[in-house]
Structure formats: structure tokens, C-alpha cells
Amino acid sequence: MAQTSPQLLERDALASLNTLRDGPGTLRLISHLFTIVLGGLIWGHQSWPLALRLAGLLVCGIGLATCFAPLHECCHRTAFRSRRLNDGVAWLSGLLSFYNSTYYRRYHQWHHRYTHQPGQDPELDDPVPTTAWSYLLELSGWNWWTGKLAGYRQLLWGDLSGLSYLSPELIPQVRRSVRLQFAVYFALALASLVSANGFLLWFWLLPLAVGQPLLRFVLLAEHSGCSFSRDGTENTRTTLTNPAVRWLMWNMPFHAEHHLYPSLPFHALPDAHRPIAPHLAHCDQGYLTVHRRLLRNLSALGLPA
Question: Tell me: the pLDDT tens digits for 99-139?
Fold first, then answer.
């Protein structure tokens, strides 16, 4: 059974907040791409001090990894008014962050339908860290990389009939999208080899690996340590954080609000937070606070018996 979502917003307020606008998404997307390019230019400037170049590498990597945020928003088709624009930006964002938007949209729909429900929510197929070592592996991005490689192998050539969120008629569409994505990667790899500049390694794979721990740090807080109940006010966490993280993550830290009202565009979530916050079981001040609590209770994070 899908999760329950109590009515916490008045109908008129919800209608107003649900209004789709192009301006906020356009500004956020341009600034996000600018972050990646600026960081990459600094990282690639061989004559500049190493410390400054490493800072550029980190900025570029964080920008690439957090392209997951526009992917997520556009897969909900709420970042822009145009469905085609949402889908195009989602695909590009997935290309940059090593996700496939065509597949992720269906996977994520199931996650919203069965949020934090053992045996139903596909996000729970990835084990939650319950020891200090598994916690560090998760934050490092190792589990994400190995999971991605295995997942893409299945999407390209494996049997997808066992994935409940992919209907038979959708599977060819997903395969075409993934194959197109890897054709782009192959073309970039070939161009890197021909030009002998290692562009794909030095300006995508390495920065993405460097930026991945920040994304893991944010995403691990969304449901870990929350209830396995169907109540949307209990099974998801909102984390109050600084404006830079909210900007890069397209307001995803307001995660409980997003799950309670997934039709809300990202720019409406701060306004939705005010009336919703008093009803949330998990509304924490800062990611460090959340992770300190998770570390104290690692053994209790596993699925219920």
C-alpha cells in the first residue's frame, strides 16, 4: 500500500504553490552549469597554484555530482512549464551526473509511491550502512560507483522483466536512452584518446568522484533513521542547511515537504516548509547534526526484521 500523506496545506495555498514557472529553473540551471565550467577552468589552468587548482577541482566535482538535483526535479517535470524542456534538462543532467533520466523517472516514481516501505521502495534495495566501515564506504561513493556499473550493465544487456517499476512497453525506451547516453560517453572517450588530453578522465570522471561524497552526505540523510511507516510526516527527513547547499541541491533538503507534495516545484518548497514543519517527525538543523545522530545509532538503521 502506498504511503499516506496528511493534508497540511490549504487548498488555495497549494494551488498557488503548485504554479510552474520557467524563471527559477532557468536561473538555477545556468548558475549550476556556470559552477561546473568555472571550477573546470580553474582546475585546468596549469600555471596557477596547486591549492587553487584543487579548489577548482572540488567546485567542478560538486557541481557535476549535484546535477543529480536538476535531474530529480526535472524527472518530476516541475522545474519548467514545458514537458519537453523538463525531459531534455533531466537527460542532460543525468548525462553529467552518471544517471539515466528515462530509467530514473520510473524508479523514482516507485520510490514516491512506496516511500521507505521494505520490500517495495526500490531505494531500500541498496543496503543502509550499519557499521562505521560501511558508513565510510557509502560516503566515499564506492558503493554508488559499483552499483552504477552493475546497474548500467543490466540496463544495457540484462533482464529487466523483474523490475516492477518498468512495464514491458517501457523497457525498449529505457534501453534506447541508456544506449544513447553511452554512445555520448564513447564519443567523448574516443575524442579524449585522439587528442591525447584525457578530457573524460580529468574533467569528468575525476571531478565526479571528488564531488560524490558531498552528494552521498546529503542523500543519506533523507530517509536514514526515519520510520518505516507509511506516514509521510514520519518516514522522510527535512534538513535545515545553508543557502549554498540548498541552491546546489535545488531545495531538496526540504525533502519531507517534497514527499508530502511531490507536485510542488522546487522554488515553492521553502514557502511550503513554514506550515508543514510543525507536523514533521524529522526536521533537523544541519547535516552534521543528522550524521552525528546516525553514527550514534548505526546498528539500528537496518531494515526491520
Answer: 999 999 999 999 999 999 999 999 999 888 999 999 999 99
The answer to whether the Cα torsion of 287, 290, 295, 301 is positive or negative is: negative
pTM of the model: 0.95
Look at residue 126 and give its three-state secondary structure. coil
Angle formed at CA 217 by CA 215 and CA 220, multiple of 5 degrees: 100
- Residue 289 amino acid letter: T
Please report, for residues 119, 168, 210, the alpha-carbon distance to residue 216 in angstroms, rounded to integers and kept in the order given: 23, 32, 11
Long-range pairs of 287-292 with CB within 8 A, sequence gap ≥ 24? 287/217, 287/218, 287/221, 287/239, 287/241, 287/245, 290/221, 290/225, 290/237, 290/239, 291/217, 291/220, 291/221
**Maximum pairwise Cα distance, the chain:** 59
Amino acid symbol at 300: A
Residue 285, strand partner residues: 240
Closest CA to 219 of 165, 143, 154, 272: 143
Q: How confident is the model at residue 300 (pLDDT cuts 50, 70, 90)?
A: confident
pLDDT (tens digit per residue) in 133-158? 999 999 999 999 999 999 999 999 99
Angle value at C-alpha 262, between 257 and 268, nearest 5 degrees: 60
State the residue for C-alpha cell 597554484: 49
Determine contact, residues 90/74, Cβ cutoff 8 Å. Answer: yes
Residue 115 near residue 4 (C-beta atoms within 8 A)? no
**Encoded amino acid at 86, one letter:** N
